[in-house]
Every structure is written in C-alpha cells, then in structure tokens.
Amino acid sequence: MRLEGILLNGLYVFLVLLICYIIFILPTQWLKIERIRYPLNLNVRILQISDMHVERLRIRPAKIAAIIHDEKPDYIFITGDFTKYRKMLPKLEEYLRAMAICNVPIFCVLGNHDYQQKNVKDLVKLLRKYGLRLLRNESLHLEQFELIGIDDFDSDKSDIKAAFRAVDDRRTKLIITHDPNIVLHLNKEFDYLMAGHLHGKQFNIPFFFHIKNAGKLPRMGIYKGLHKQQYGAYYISKGIGQTGVNARLFVRSEVTMHYL
C-alpha cells in the first residue's frame, strides 16, 4: 500500500508538472505565424519580429531561419527589445547570424530593454556587424515606400519631428517603432505602423494592464493586433520572447507576415 501511495503521489506530481508545462511553457515554444493583409498595393511581404528578449527566448535560431526561407519576405523588420543584458550579446549574435545568411534586408529599432544596457553602443555595433539597418528617429527612401523609424517612446527617445524630417509625403509611409503608445502622440499621417512591446499581455488575464502600467493604449484595451486611428493603421505584435517570468498564459509567441 505504501508503494502504491508513492506511485500515486508521483503520478499526481507528474500530471501537475505536465499541465503547468502545457499552460505556461508550451505557448513560449509553439511559435505562431500571424498573417496580416492590408491593402496598400505595394506588393511587398514583410516579416515582423518583435521583442526577442534572447535571455528568455525559447525559439531556436534555426527555426527563425527556416521561417525566413519558407516565407520569402522582401524585408524583415525587428521592432525592438533584443536584450537588456550585455552578457547575452553572444547569444543574440547566433540569431543575427541565422537571419543575415538569408540575404533579406533587415531594418530595426531599439526598445526599452535595449536602452537598459549600460552601454547600448555595444548592441548597436553588433547589429551593424550583421548588416541590420538601425533607424533612430530617421527615415529611408526605399523602392516602394518611405520607411520611418521612431525611437522608443517608453525610454523617452522618440523624436517624431526628426523622424519625419526627410520624408516624402507623396509616397506610402511605413513606420517601425517599439512602444505603440506613440500612436497617441502621432499627429502626422502615415499608412501603416508596426510595433511590439506589450506581448499581447503575455498573461491573458482580465485587467492585466490596470495592474501593470504599460501606458494609456493598453488600458484602453488596445494591446495586440491590427487597429486604425485617424492618422493611419497600426499593428501590435505579441512578440517572440518573454520578459519578467519566462512564461505565457493563453498567449502564443508570434512572428508576423504583413502583406501590404
């Protein structure tokens, strides 16, 4: 009887651990490719990767490279939060190397966690080493559109006026930024904006953003997916990595294919 009790208790523990794994850990490993179609008539495919947080990322570099290979995007946009720890730059380098060998133009912005590093210049240097074009309140004139990179709003690094200074208003305008709260302060017309930062809550529980202060936008119930406001449309990614507790609840990790 004592042996049976030990086995039964062991079974209970196993089941509890299995349930916890399925509920909290599996969503961080079971990567979803969101597909968003928005009619800008550009005929471009853009892969958005947001909130890598490589210190807590459970998606392997080879998986990301395979997605790039299979989806064949015209551009890759990374919308901030690579890592907050300088010691994790070698791990980040594994991901950058895997993406760079796919020979797809990569453009990026920094996030609030990136600015928490003691010397963000080390991160910037690494990004440039692998050919990523970092936009910090500036724009680029690309073949099909104007690409505008607005620096992180949460870190008080945003300068909308500077970001739009050289923009040709006659052309389609795409924006990449990290914190979507910037849309509440944008008073310039744009066609499409991509952001991250909010992780789709990460823990999908009621009133989460009333407990955790992440700005006005999520308190309004806007923290993931496609939305529109008077100046343009914007998409908030649920992100590929985690911050804080390395778990998710009813929110899967994602990368996003935008068909514009």
UniProtKB/TrEMBL annotation:
Native source organism of the sequence: Paenibacillus anseongense
Keyword Glycosyltransferase belongs to the record: no
Superkingdom of origin: Bacteria
Protein name as catalogued: Metallophosphoesterase
Keywords from the UniProt entry: Hydrolase, Membrane, Metal-binding, Transmembrane, Transmembrane helix
Pfam families hit by this protein: Metallophos (PF00149)
Annotated SUPFAM superfamilies: Metallo-dependent phosphatases
Domain Calcineurin-like phosphoesterase: 45-200
UniProt cross-references to Gene3D superfamilies, sorted A to Z: 3.60.21.10
Listed transmembrane segments: 6-27
InterPro entries, A to Z: Calcineurin-like_PHP, Metallo-depent_PP-like, Metallophosphoesterase_sf
